[in-house]
Amino acid sequence: MTRTSNPHSRLTALLDALEAELLAAPADKVRDALREAGRAGNVACQEVRALLNEAIAASEDGSAATLPPDACTGLDQLLGVSKELRPAARGNTHASAFPAWSCRRH
Amino acid sequence: MTGTSQQIKDWSRPAAPPQRGVGAALAALSEEDLLRLRAIARLRARSLPPGGMTWSDLLHEAVLRALAGARPWPQGVPLLAFLAGAMRSLCDEQWRRHRRQDHLSILHGSGGAHDPERACAAAEVLAAIQRLFASDEAALKVITGLMSGMAAGEIRCHCDMTAVEYDTTRRRIRRTMLRYGLAWSGP
Asked: Is residue B179 domain-resident?
């Protein structure tokens, strides 16, 4: 139980509860939401599907290996790479000083 | 709303058998699960440091780590719950990175609860989530209870709600979150 006035702890408690709610939502209710959304629902699903397919493809051709947590920061600091040198967008990983770093920046 | 641990037990999303890869399980996700994933990513992305990753970056990175095995998928854990956990960890990691980049000192452990910038950002996100339910007084009461870490029974008691009222409110909250997850674009 959180019982705190700290905004970070309150947000964590709320996000965890809402996330659990989304995970537990019955499939028919989710379907209803998709149906109500019409074309926006289809586009939303296609967008996520495309993102997953892209990640799967990248993973299969070995071009998108991720670094361990926080390793990027450590390397950046060590080598003096600024934030601005990082890839501007997904699919532009070759522009990165570290091609293995997969985070997308917009 | 039942406790999170109980809900984890109740989640009916099938956990993939160990021989099945993350890639195959991702490819087999239903449209409903794609929407859940999107809604969770959009929700979690609200708690990212400003000016950093978007919800799609967050989801993409979580998926890549799962595919690469950088974050192993534990046996028996539903894929969506696993990816949700990965996104949650990435948010914390992004804050740590943000603090290091900005040369801010980490005072206590992870620094989460004692980081003034993160606390300020969290307060803004809380306000934004509350605005989503601005027209629904009962939902706001439940949301406030959830923020305080109250269990379902406590919220019902505190807000003087019947079980039916509480469940109905919970369904409305869920619908709103799903609609929010369906939004065309945005952070």
From this structure: no
| Binding-face residues of A in 55-94 toward B, CB within 8 A | 55-56, 58-60, 64-70, 72-73, 76-77, 83, 90
Closest partner residue to A66 (CB to CB) among B4, B68, B183 is: B68
Question: d(Cα A56, Cα B64) in Å, to the nearest integer?
Answer: 8
The 10s digit of each residue's pLDDT in A16-66 is 999 999 999 999 999 998 898 888 888 999 999 999 999 988 888 775 555
Q: ipTM value of the model? A: 0.82
Query: Does B73 map to a domain?
Result: yes
Residue B15 pLDDT greater than 60, yes or no: no
Q: How many domains does chain B have?
A: 1
Q: If you write DSSP's letter for every residue of B70-125 in order, what string do you get?
A: SS---TTS-HHHHHHHHHHHHHHHHHHHHHHHTT----STT-GGG-HHHHHHHHHH
Residue B112, chain A, CB below 8 Å: the answer is yes
Q: What pTM was computed for the model?
A: 0.75
Domain membership of residue B10 (yes or no) is: no
CA distance A38 to chain B (A): 10
Residue ranges making up the domain that contains B23:
15-107
- CA nearest to B47 within chain A: A11
